[in-house]
Amino acid sequence: MRFLNRSVGRLSRHRRRPLAGLVLLLLGLLLTGGLYSAFAPATASTASDNEELVAEGRELFLVGCAFCHGQNGEGVSTVNGNWLGPTLAGVGAAAVDFQVGTGRMPMAQPGAQNPTKPVSYDQDEIDALAAYVASLAPGPSVPDPSDYSLAGLSSDEREEAIARGGQIFLTNCTACHNYAGKGGAMPRGGYAPNLSDTSAKHIYEALLTGPGQMDSFSNGNLSPEEKRDVIAYLYSLREQPAYGGFTFGSLGPVGEGLLAWVIGIGALVAIATWIAAHTARSNKKKGATA
Amino acid sequence: MSDQHGPDELGPGEHGSSDLPDKYAGHEGEIQSADEPIRNPGLPQHTWRPTDVDPKAERRAERQVAGIFGLAALCAVLFVVSYFVFDIGGSPEDDVPTIFGLGASNVALGGTLGLALLLIGIGLIQWARKLMSDHEMVEMRHPARSSDEDREATIKALNDGLEESGIARRPLVRNSLLGAVTVLLAPAVVLLRDLGPTPNQVAEEADYPGAGLEKTVWEKGMRVVRDVVGTPIRPGDMEIGDLFNAEPEIIFAVDEEGEPILEGEPLLIAKSKAAVVLIRMDPDENKPAPGRENWAIDGILCYSKICTHVGCPISLNERKTHHLLCPCHQSTFDLADAAKVVFGPAARPLPQLPLAVDSEGYLVAQSDFREPVGPSFWERDSQASTTE
Question: In angstroms, what separates the C-alpha of B333 from chain A's closest C-alpha?
Fold first, then answer.
């Protein structure tokens, strides 16, 4: 009690300072806002928000996606039985966020592989599209940042997570994406993309949904923690200095061999030619001046 | 050094062959013969380098060469110094020194050793170019054929030898010699055969499960678990389009005291033969081979991960076509069609592991693979695919 009295007294000494009014006003506003958000009817408003988002997403979908995917996302097939655009029922919000968020969709033209492009929609529009497609049938939802963040882990746990992620990556991913995640060639003109600049969210979504020819790694396959560890490993690769020297694109013996044979041996030949072509000669004759 | 073959007073138009040492004088008449419509101009006049005529330049070049060799020695010393100075780190949290974002140790070791070798090379070149004689000289080609006398003498000696040994007259001696040499192969065969155990000896004598080329550690009821983490798999964990890299449970299993059941070499052998890929596809897409109708569970198929060409582990799968591609030589297997080879050098389909579900709902093997996994080998029975 004495302690309380003393601290109130200490506070009270500041009550006539010039900033005291401003501080009091800010405290009041914070309290009001906090109380409102705590007691406001939150569930009802998100439900109607979601309905609005789905409606907005449908508008965007009809303009940008329906030509190939059908007006209700049912897919459009070609005369020879292939998909012009596959059905989107069940692909989930994660697939939309990945495909549109990396610029792969909307597709410019059909081809061996759908490349990344500058993104055509802003994040709000992508969220609306994702909400609409997710409303067609249940599917994987967009992961929360806490799903792939190492925040809250001690440094030992982080290291353990990165090491486990590395083992999982080397077992499941390197076959196509290269041991350093630099990507690689696949049959019939396809390729596994380079993962050096892919955001954690998009890696997570790709694992969940299996875009293009990629296998999916659903939560039953790699648990959310294991996915988080794989992403932590990939991020740790980006920060790591090249301890072994120049990486030459981390393509293994192909890149190194190409450099050694073309640039290394080429330079040796050029130097040898240069040495043979240059000799200083004198007009004097031996013994003439001596 | 070059004094012996370099008459300085030789004019540009002077005959070249007189520039040669005396041992080539015999060719002079030939060169000047009337058969040659154009006179052989010989070698052009030799011009001297500054180091040949200027003693100062010569001494400077000498110092340069010695200096370059000295630098090479310095680099070699720096190599030894940087070997001990720069830490290469034993664990990830060690702060390993870097130069320009590259590991300092590697850069310093590679740089100093490379420079030392390069400087020795540069010094040698400088020595040869500046100080060694660069006088042009001619050496005439000699015929490769021996003289007729030598050839006759050699053939005669050979014939005399044959005659005196009497090998043509005594076939008994000749044949018994040939026979003795042939039988001498037998010790070699016996010794080479015992260089390593044969696959059958391995299978019979090894004290760990799944030994030999015909068998793996898979057995009836053994669970299929995720690779790396070792957790068992329920069919419900797999969605259509999922690919699991999996191993038999025994790889991760421990006994009552917490010691791994398999470790060391048997563990590596088990892993290298028993690794599998699990894939779930739409059950309608799968075309099971005859007799394998009950090997899949709701479109979940399990195949050996070891390529039947030369044994690389395969897991490059294309989800839409179910084509599994080997990264080594591009052998491609159609997993929806009993893993038949659709492209590449592999000659056999990937062996399939028959699946079942145990009482707790986890995926297990019905049995070991029904045929040997991995590349073909000498004793493999190419017809056997359903041996129990």
Answer: 12
